[in-house]
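Figure 3 (text version): structure tokens given as input.
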């Protein structure tokens, strides 16, 4: 529905009718059985059209009482919206430009900082929050604590709350997430499928992400790749639907298989080892990867993918063929080895890159349910 930045009082329709008839306000007041002052206040929007007045107008003007009442409701609603957006405009600067651009890209708003009140209103509607205070209270908990929103950051870059919550909410509007509400998760089943997940991840190809999503869904875990806002500093996040169903949500920001696979098993570590349903966001505590939750998740990924020997078998290897052969021997994708060797400064960043497999665009994302301003 198109909105305006002005409100039309129903009295304007009455004034137009009076002019067409050539009547005076006093003449109309006499016909309605009310004072001239009341007619003048209705025309100027100072007095509301009540049910009784609407019935009188129907008899005098010939426009149905329900129509007059609809005009009145629309007028009061527009007035309230205009005042509301004027008040909300003060919060516009708290919405990161990347979050605003993201909302426009998915059709959740058409507003920009040229219409700040509308931008904030659409932002709150997207998050299902009536006020900015409600939004703050609802999402502040995602920035507190050791475990709550288990995340894997790619650097020490600052993570803006509005960008994060917008990305998370976008995921909740997908069919994948909706379907996950009916999943039944059991930790023992997830543990049992880890060897198969590891085996599948050792052969990265265009079908890998969809295969992994299917395998995880069979044990009650939602896996999804959701396009993030620009300059978004996360690789992935793990959270829960109603403290029952775990969700692994990746950005796909790094399309190289080594990043994707390591992030996947890191997040599985969070699911199996962190308190169910609790939330943690490492960048807000400034602990980054050094928090207990992150160390535990990284340790899990290392144990599953590299085994007890860790990166020891790769020490001194610099040629692609050597790294690929050793990775095959261990049973992992060469890209995983290169990713970890780069991270631990065992391999120069300009080496090994040809061993990465590009997974960009290979996840069949489910369509987002309709959103709009």
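Below: residues designed for each position.
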């Amino acid at each position: 529905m198109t909105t305006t930045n002005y409100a039309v009082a129903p009295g304007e329709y009455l004034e137009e009718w009076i002019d067409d008839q050539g009547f005076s306000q006093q003449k109309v007041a006499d016909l309605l059985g009310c004072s001239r002052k009341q007619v003048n206040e209705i025309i100027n929007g100072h007095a509301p059209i009540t049910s009784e007045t609407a019935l009188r107008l129907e008899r005098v003007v010939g426009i149905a009482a329900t129509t007059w009442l609809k005009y009145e409701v629309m007028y009061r609603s527009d007035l309230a919206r205009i005042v509301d957006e004027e008040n909300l405009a003060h919060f516009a600067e708290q919405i990161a430009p990347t979050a605003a651009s993201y909302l426009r890209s998915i059709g959740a708003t058409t507003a920009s900082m040229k219409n700040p009140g509308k931008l904030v209103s659409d932002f709150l509607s997207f998050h299902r929050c009536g006020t900015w205070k409600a939004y703050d209270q609802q999402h502040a908990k995602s920035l507190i604590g050791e475990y709550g929103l288990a995340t894997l950051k790619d650097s020490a870059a600052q993570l803006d709350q509005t960008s994060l919550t917008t990305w998370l909410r976008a995921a909740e509007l997908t069919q994948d997430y909706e379907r996950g509400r009916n999943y039944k998760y059991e930790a023992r089943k997830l543990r049992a499928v880890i060897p198969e997940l590891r085996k599948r991840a050792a052969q990265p190809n265009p079908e890998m992400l969809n295969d992994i999503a299917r395998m995880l869904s069979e044990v009650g875990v939602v896996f999804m790749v959701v396009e993030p806002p620009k300059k978004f500093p996360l690789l992935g996040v793990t959270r829960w639907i109603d403290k029952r169903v775990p969700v692994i949500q990746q950005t796909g920001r790094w399309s190289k298989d080594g990043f994707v696979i390591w992030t996947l098993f890191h997040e599985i570590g969070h699911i199996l080892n962190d308190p169910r349903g609790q939330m943690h966001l490492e960048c807000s505590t400034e602990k980054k990867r050094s928090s207990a939750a992150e160390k535990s998740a990284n340790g899990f990924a290392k144990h599953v993918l590299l085994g007890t020997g860790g990166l020891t078998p790769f020490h001194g290897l610099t040629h692609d063929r050597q790294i690929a052969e050793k990775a095959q021997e261990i049973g992992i994708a060469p890209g995983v080895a290169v990713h970890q060797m780069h991270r631990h400064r065992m391999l120069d960043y300009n080496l090994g890159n040809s061993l990465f497999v590009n997974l960009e665009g290979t996840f069949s994302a489910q369509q987002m349910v309709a959103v709009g301003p």
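The radius of gyration is 29 Å.
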